Amino acid sequence: MLGLNYSFMMAETIGQKGITGRKLESFRVKALEALEEIKRKRYPGLAFTELPWQDVSSVKEAAKRLKELDYFLLLGIGGSALGPKCILESLSPFHNQRRDGKGPKVFIYENVDPSTLRSILASLDIKKTGINVISKSGGTSETVASFMILYEMLEKSIGREAAGRFVLTTDPEKGDLRKLASEGMSSLPIPPGVGGRYSVLSPVGLLTAEVIGVDSEELLAGAKEAHEKCLACNFWENPAIVAATLYYVMQRDEGRSIDVLLPYADRLKSFSDWFCQLWSESLGKQGKGLTPYPSVGTTDQHSQVQLWMEGPEDKVVTFLRVEDYEADFAIPDVFGQYEGMSFLRGQTLAGLIKAEEEATELALAKAGRPNMAITIPKIDAYHLGHLFYFFEVVTVLTGHFLGVNPFDQPSVEEGKKLTFGLMGKKGFEDKKREVVQARDKKSQFTI
Q: What's the pLDDT tens digit per position in 182-197?
């Protein structure tokens, strides 16, 4: 069960820089209206709310075949890589260094940096590799380019068997990857209406989970619990509504438009990266938005907290704390003659990281810097699924408050069109001319 403590967001605890209970209460009607929009599925993009009840038998079957190989390579970008990467690093950290035989070694190629692909290829045997190609549209340039290169490599290595090494995760009806699937390549569907940044609990993320030995049904079970909790109508008992309201009011009334997500667990660092895309691409439009700030504790206490404490008052810090790290180390009774070490004797690493998290919360609060804390019992598939779904609902609710569609990304499309023009795609000749003209202007201000 996820817990939300927002004491240090409130005026009652941090003074005039906090929010009063009366102001929060004034948002009750608007918040419940937003909740009803989710229930009525006002936007097609709300199809992600149906994912917790999907049939995962085809995902398990595909994973079973891939697990027989020595290497698993995922090709994707944006939500098609951030979600699977978060599952991998949260639930099977240092996966490729494990000695327990927990599935094939996993590599995620999420960019088109050729030196990275060279390094990946040097780390695996292409003849023993299964490849998951993820693109909802079936035409994501970066992913398709990588796919074309790797398909040729595999075909040269193992001949006609190459097609059987690929799983194409894409739209169930349209796109070039779907056409290839209809010609015999194995495929998994991304349900219509599920956008890339909301797709982690679809086959996009679930296949990687199964390949590394994580039960995808546990991820979905956690999401089901989050669905029941986050779509409840009681304002004060609904953590998603309260969190979204706090984020919005802090931005609207206090100018706090930067949201720091600070998990106190290395395994959740990639969760911050996943949140970064969800928050920015969903909310940043029409001159509005909230800026995500991915971080990790305690590391960033030594690199960022100074800014948060005494820098611009434009941030809200959300701590993500873990009750049970499922591992611990006692600090031994050594070097007692040194004052800077002796106080640590008899303590534990888990006790230290928890103390630092709690102390940083209070230090920020004493400086009048708003912060709140989300707590999960431990990092496992169930609670990770809960976290994914919780933040997706919070994002949709915040989008409602801002008055933006949290499911489109119109400005991203312009960059894609200009790229198509530069790369010579038919029908985008005018975009190529636009880039060439811009080059002439850019040359005027070059040193």
A: 877 899 999 999 999 9
**HSE (CB half, 13 Å, CA atoms) of 73?**
25
Distance between CA atoms of residues 90 and 84, nearest Å: 10
Structurally, at CATH architecture level, domain 49-214 sits in 3-Layer(aba) Sandwich (3.40)
Residue 312 CA: distances (Å) to CA of 8, 51, 150, 288: 18, 40, 47, 19
What φ, ψ does residue 214 adopt, rounded to 5°? -100, 130
Buried b (16+ CB within 10 A) or exposed e, 338-359: eeeeeebeeeeebeebbeebee
Give yes or no for a contact between 77 and 101, defined as CB atoms under 8 angstroms apart. no
Specify whether the CB–CB gap between 409 and 255 falls below 8 A. Answer: no
List the catalytic residues: 281, 302, 416
Residue 304: pLDDT band (50, 70, 90) is very high
The b/e string for 66-92 (b: 16+ C-beta within 10 A; e otherwise) is bbebebbbbbbbbbbbbbbbbbbbbbb
Strand partners, 288: 285
Residue 23 CA neighbour count, 13 Å, CB half: 17
C-alpha–C-alpha distance, residues 170 and 185, integer Å? 12
Could you give the CA distance from residue 366 to residue 369 in angstroms, rounded to a whole number?
7
Q: Of the candidates 202, 228, 246, 272, which has an alpha carbon nearest to the alpha carbon of residue 401? A: 246
Cα–Cα separations (whole angstroms), residue 110 to 82, 148, 312, 351: 8, 15, 34, 36
- Is the pLDDT score of 329 beyond 90? yes
First to last CA, the chain: 57
Fold (CATH) for 3-39+220-402: Rossmann fold (3.40.50)
The CA radius of gyration of the chain, in Å to the nearest whole number, is 24
pTM score, whole prediction: 0.94
Distance between CA atoms of residues 249 and 9, nearest Å = 11
